[in-house]
From TrEMBL:
Monomer. Catalyzes the reversible transfer of the terminal phosphate group between ATP and AMP. Plays an important role in cellular energy homeostasis and in adenine nucleotide metabolism. GO terms for biological process: AMP salvage. InterPro entries: Adenyl_kin_sub (IPR006259), Adenylat/UMP-CMP_kin (IPR000850), Adenylat_kinase_CS (IPR033690), Adenylate_kinase_lid-dom (IPR007862), P-loop_NTPase (IPR027417). One of its GO terms (molecular function) is ATP binding. This is Adenylate kinase. It catalyses: AMP + ATP = 2 ADP. It comes from Noviherbaspirillum denitrificans. Residues 122-159 are annotated as: LID. The gene is adk.
Length: 207
């Protein structure tokens, strides 16, 4: 199974990815998690990316496309993959199409902007796994601790209200065009075209 999870910041891509990757036994390829790992490791890429991420902007297409192409060479992608937060621009989507990277489904998670800031302010993350909680909507079993490892949960640096608003603007300006892009491709029915499904991201996580 080869999937793209598309949706605004805080739509629940990472949250739903956790279920989907287990069900299909496929790796989650989150460009956001990959960048945060580079920031934590203090690599040159990480140092560069941190500035952009903290400002709520997008890291350059060349860097992201390079990262994903390398990741797809890993043996665990043979059985499929789940893209989370990628592609995020037309050049990123085109690069995958041109490289013949197959996609079975594009799942759009739809959440209105009004819900996003509340979700982000309550988000808590287990840094090394990317597992995500919410203090109110999806609390961990023990406050402040990851369910699996018991390790400390943190708040993301880019979850400040102004940064969230900037990220939402960037989503509407640069990423939302992919809704039309993939819908059009799906409707073309051409060989290799993905199926497109829009799903409401409001309501209980399990639903
Ligand atoms: P990235 O990490 O991809 O962030 P994002 O797309 O902004 O999405 P989020 O991770 O914030 O949200 P999510 O949809 O995963 O929601 P979650 O499940 O956590 O990217 C970060 C940055 O990296 C970007 O800003 C950019 O700078 C850079 N970057 C990454 N990829 C890039 C690319 N391809 N190109 C260029 N730059 C790139 O849920 C959010 C909260 O809501 C949680 O607390 C959760 O518990 C809660 N929640 C989830 N579902 C529900 C529900 N149904 N009801 C109530 N609460 C819920
Ligand atoms: Zn995420």
């Amino acid at each position: 199974m080869r999937l793209i999870l598309l949706g605004p910041p805080g739509a629940g891509k990472g949250t739903q990815a956790n279920f989907i990757k287990e069900k299909f036994n496929i790796p989650q390829i989150s460009t956001g998690d990959m960048l945060r790992a580079a920031v934590k490791a203090g690599t040159p890429l990480g140092l560069e990316a941190k500035k952009v991420m903290d400002a709520g902007g997008l890291v350059s297409d060349d860097i992201i496309i390079g990262l994903v192409k390398d990741r797809l060479k890993q043996p665990d992608c043979a059985n499929g993959y789940l893209f989370d937060g990628f592609p995020r621009t037309i050049p990123q989507a085109d690069a995958m199409k041109d490289a013949g990277v197959a996609i079975d489904y594009v799942l759009e998670i739809d959440v209105p902007d009004e819900s996003i800031v509340e979700r982000m302010s309550g988000r808590r993350v287990h840094q090394s796994s990317g597992r995500t909680y919410h203090v109110k909507f999806n609390p961990p079993k023990v406050e402040g601790k990851d369910d699996v490892t018991g390790e400390e949960l943190i708040q993301r640096d880019d979850d400040k209200e102004e940064t969230v608003k900037k990220r939402l603007t960037v989503y509407h300006d640069q990423t939302e065009v992919l809704v039309g892009y993939y819908n059009k491709w799906a409707e073309s029915g051409k060989p290799g075209a993905p199926k497109y499904r829009k799903i409401s991201g409001v309501g209980p996580v399990e639903t």
